[in-house]
Amino acid sequence: MAKSSEEKHEVFICFRGEDTRNTFTSHLNAALRRLEIRTYIDHDLRRGEEIPERLLRAIKDAKLSVIVFSENFAASKWCLDEVVNILECKKRSNQIVVPVFYRVDPAVVRNQIGSYGDAFGKHEQRFEGEMNKVRKWREALTEAANHSGWGCSLNKVEYEIVEGIAKDVMEKLNHVYVGDLDEQIRKFEQLAELQEQYYNAITNVENLQIYQSTLERITQLKMERSIRLLRLTPDMLPYVGNFGSR
């Protein structure tokens, strides 16, 4: 889920707020939350000259960073600084990097052409005396764009891409999702409580059998949950018995 001060995040999402904060990035964050993946998103709309320490620390603490490249991404000094720091973390601590090309071609990012070329033309004028900084930004974009990533163009269904990225992140973090089973178990347990009350009010064999059938289904779902968490290999499934085929 989105990071609070009490919990540690696993994923840092780097994005250009003006381009995707309320659209693609918010949808991606929601998809990750549904899979119980803790994320860090910078909600501070204020921008200063230097990237704040809290963001540098958030990048460092993440196991995986998603970089959402968009049309105006390169115009943001902060976004570029974040990419540089993400790649440094990849080198130092093997942080996983997942680039997403949101309505922008990877070649535009890799070669800094198009809108990215325009942005760097302005950076070179503004930071004329700090060309080493601009060079690091260019190198970082080239390196990040060379990573295997996800494309999201106008002719693709965004929902499917977002769900695909979220599942990819889950696998890269070596997570197992059991939220769907937890929800089923919760509903069946509520149903069992009602059936038990009904059986106590009207005691007969039929009501007892219905109640016992629900209890059996709860046991099956809990077993399925445990099996999923164990990550059993195909050769181990025969030892599970009937539960493994449900």
Strand order of the largest sheet: 2-1-3-4-5
The secondary structure category is: alpha/beta
| Total of domains | 2
**Distinct helical segment count:** 10
Give a count of the beta strands, DSSP E runs of length 2 or more: 5
Residue fraction in strands: 5-15%
Mean pLDDT: 88
Order of helices and strands: EHHEHEHEHHHEHHH
Overall outline: elongated
Query: In CATH, what is the homologous superfamily of the largest domain?
Result: Toll/interleukin-1 receptor homology (TIR) domain
- The radius of gyration over CA amounts to 24 Å
Runs in which pLDDT lies below 50 for 5 or more consecutive residues are none
Instruction: Assign a percent range to the helix content.
Output: 55-70%
Largest sheet: 5 strands, parallel
Short précis:
This protein is of the alpha/beta class and 246 residues long.
Keywords:
246 residues, elongated, Rossmann fold, alpha/beta, 9% strand, single chain, 5 strands
Task: Characterize the structure shown.
This protein has 246 residues and is α/β, with parallel strands linked by helices. The protein is elongated, with a radius of gyration of 24 Å. The longest helix is centred in the C-terminal third of the chain and has 26 residues, at 205-230. It contains 10 helices and 5 strands, in the order βααβαβαβαααβααα. The chain folds into 2 domains: 11-156, Rossmann fold (3-Layer(aba) Sandwich), CATH 3.40.50.10140; 174-234. It has helices at residues 17-20, 24-34, 53-61, 77-93, 106-111, 115-126, 131-145, 158-172, 179-201, 205-230; strands at 11-15, 39-40, 64-69, 96-102, 150-152. Strands 2-1-3-4-5 form a 5-stranded parallel beta sheet, with helices on both faces. It comes from Arachis duranensis. Keywords: NAD. One of its GO terms (biological process) is signal transduction. Residues 7-173 form the TIR domain.
